[in-house]
């Protein structure tokens, strides 16, 4: 347990992906699960226990379809008039996951080929929210049938790497992957195909400004190792959140999401405080914010820096903030700093 948990609120594990291998000892997946073969361990159970001890919410990803399962392929052949795969394999396993591991979140996937009438999603969800052991706490996403996504669900994922570009009225989540070409681990990936620290932070900030949650994926190796380059990216994000997390966690979108003139300043809010997160350090050390309206009582601080910052009313509108002097450094500067504004409208 020497893994340093950066501040996060929930973790989602793939219990079963589209190939059908289950990371727990499913009795519906004889000899094709992590207890009967491979590590001979209940990975879903072990991770759940570790997360609960760390007070982190536990989400389970589950694929409804299985690309190679003969039962599924036969149902598909019948135009989904038969439901042998649903009744004998995928639904019994989903009920088993809920009863055995009592997840805080269910991240459904693999829904897109068939209608709700095939998957029996509504009867599962009715049970989940009315009778299951997690009925009062569980959260789900929107991938439950071929036209559910972005229309029906707890929160919306819509598409992978979804960027609405505007404030949504419904809670949503952006799922992204450090490896830009894959969700699973690739032994042949190269550095240019990975997101760097700055682009991860930018994606997080944009998502939260628009009211979304950010779910960042890494694919472990077949031995279950998170490779050092992924660890490095996650730890860098954790260090950034150590300083700037106040503007991210439990925040709400502000009346303005970003400065019109630029997509390098993004806003969040919490109670009376407004946070302006800027991704590029201005050359003249003066940050121009045209959206907030200051008052004589306005106080300006920067997360991670002691003391208040000088500011003045902008000649046009908004305010000009004098940033602390940063020592010149041969390294490119970190990405993303947060100005906290109190007493602005």
UniProtKB/TrEMBL annotation:
EC number(s) on file: 3.2.1.51
Catalytic activity: a neolactoside IV(2)-alpha-Fuc-nLc4Cer(d18:0) + H2O = a neolactoside nLc4Cer(d18:0) + L-fucose; a neolactoside IV(2)-alpha-Fuc-nLc4Cer(d18:1(4E)) + H2O = a neolactoside nLc4Cer(d18:1(4E)) + L-fucose
GO biological process, one term: lipid metabolic process
Residues of the Glycoside hydrolase family 29 N-terminal domain: 9-246
All copies of domain Alpha-L-fucosidase C-terminal, residue ranges: 257-342
GO cellular component: lysosome
Stored InterPro entries: FUC_metazoa-typ, Fucosidase_C, GH, Glyco_hydro_29, Glyco_hydro_29_CS, Glyco_hydro_29_N, Glyco_hydro_b
Cell compartments where the protein resides: Lysosome
SUPFAM superfamilies, per database record: (Trans)glycosidases
Keyword Cell inner membrane listed: no
Keywords of this entry: Glycoprotein, Glycosidase, Hydrolase, Lipid metabolism, Lysosome, Signal
Main location: other
Enzyme class per UniProt: hydrolase
MF GO annotations: alpha-L-fucosidase activity
Domain of life (superkingdom): Eukaryota
Keyword Transferase among record annotations: no
Subunit structure: Homotetramer.
Task performed by this protein: Alpha-L-fucosidase is responsible for hydrolyzing the alpha-1,6-linked fucose joined to the reducing-end N-acetylglucosamine of the carbohydrate moieties of glycoproteins.
UniProt family annotation: Belongs to the glycosyl hydrolase 29 family.
Protein name according to UniProt: Tissue alpha-L-fucosidase
Lineage of the species this protein comes from: Eukaryota, Metazoa, Chordata, Craniata, Vertebrata
Originating gene: FUCA1
């Amino acid at each position: 347990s020497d893994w340093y948990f950066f501040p996060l609120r929930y973790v989602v594990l793939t219990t079963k992906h589209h190939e059908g291998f289950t990371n727990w000892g499913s009795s519906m997946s004889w000899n094709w699960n992590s207890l009967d073969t491979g590590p001979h361990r209940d990975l879903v159970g072990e991770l759940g226990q570790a997360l609960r001890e760390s007070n982190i919410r536990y989400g389970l990803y589950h694929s409804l379809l299985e690309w190679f399962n003969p039962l599924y392929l036969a149902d598909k052949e019948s135009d989904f008039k038969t439901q042998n795969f649903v009744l004998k394999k995928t639904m019994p396993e989903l009920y088993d996951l809920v009863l055995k591991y009592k997840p805080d979140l269910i991240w459904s996937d693999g829904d897109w080929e068939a209608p709700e009438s095939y998957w029996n999603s509504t009867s599962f969800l009715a049970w989940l929210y009315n009778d299951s052991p997690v009925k009062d706490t569980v959260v789900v996403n929107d991938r439950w049938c071929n036209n559910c996504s972005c229309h029906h669900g707890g929160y919306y994922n819509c598409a992978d790497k979804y960027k609405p570009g505007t404030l949504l009225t419904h809670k949503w989540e952006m799922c992204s992957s450090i490896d830009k070409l894959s969700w699973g681990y690739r032994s042949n990936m190269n550095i240019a195909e990975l997101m760097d620290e700055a682009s991860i932070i930018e994606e997080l900030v944009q998502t939260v400004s628009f009211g979304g949650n950010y779910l960042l994926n890494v694919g472990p190796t077949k031995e279950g190792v998170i490779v050092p380059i992924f660890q490095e990216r996650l730890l860098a994000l954790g260090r950034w959140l150590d300083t700037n997390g106040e503007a991210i966690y439990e925040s709400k979108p502000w009346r303005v999401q970003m400065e019109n003139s630029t997509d390098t300043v993004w806003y969040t809010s919490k109670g009376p405080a407004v946070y302006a997160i800027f991704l590029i350090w201005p050359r003249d050390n003066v940050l121009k914010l045209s959206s907030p309206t200051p008052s004589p009582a306005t106080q300006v601080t920067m997360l991670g820096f002691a003391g208040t910052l000088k500011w003045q009313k902008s000649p046009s509108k908004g305010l000009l903030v004098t940033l602390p002097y940063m020592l010149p450094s041969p390294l490119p500067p970190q990405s993303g700093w947060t100005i906290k504004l109190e007493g602005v409208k």
